[in-house]
């Protein structure tokens, strides 16, 4: 197999949040001719609960392999083993009921991460602060 970085994402306005992996001999292994990695970013100050995790896992079971991984330092959920064809349906269904959404895109150093690393989960990581980091991150973009 080989990795192909970028260039396979079909969601307007989003970068290469999918790392493509292609089988070199797809005729011998048709079930894994594409085995892409999708990275689902945790929105700033959002805590996963069982309802949200179940929702994302149900989506992945329907549109992918069902194989997942949690990235500990970023809070991202990594979906392993999807096809290019499943990208759009996966993205559309990843909108969560609580009004916030999971972001299918690469983690980038945008304002929410440049202000302070504590913004990714807000007050859970920052006990004492002079600034209202989350307010700044959500209102200054």
Automatic annotation (TrEMBL):
Q: Which domain of life is it from?
A: Bacteria
SUPFAM superfamilies the record matches: Nitrite/Sulfite reductase N-terminal domain-like (SSF55124)
Stretches assigned to the Nitrite/Sulfite reductase ferredoxin-like domain: 33-94
| One of the record's GO molecular function terms | oxidoreductase activity
Q: What's the name of the protein?
A: Dissimilatory sulfite reductase subunit A
Q: What organism is the protein native to?
A: uncultured sulfate-reducing bacterium
Q: Which classification does the entry list for the species?
A: Bacteria, environmental samples
Q: Which gene encodes it?
A: dsrA
């Amino acid at each position: 197999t080989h990795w192909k970085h970028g260039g396979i994402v079909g969601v307007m306005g989003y970068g290469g949040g999918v790392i493509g992996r292609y089988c070199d001999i797809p005729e011998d292994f048709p079930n894994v001719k594409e085995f892409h990695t999708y990275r689902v970013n945790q929105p700033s100050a959002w805590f996963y609960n069982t309802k949200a995790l179940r929702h994302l896992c149900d989506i992945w079971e329907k549109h992918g392999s069902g194989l997942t991984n949690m990235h500990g330092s970023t809070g991202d959920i990594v979906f392993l083993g999807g096809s290019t064809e499943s990208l759009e349906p996966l993205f559309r269904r990843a909108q969560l009921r609580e009004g916030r959404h999971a972001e299918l895109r690469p983690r980038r150093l945008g304002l929410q991460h440049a202000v302070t690393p504590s913004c990714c989960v807000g007050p859970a990581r920052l006990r004492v602060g002079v600034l209202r980091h989350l307010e700044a991150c959500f209102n200054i973009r």
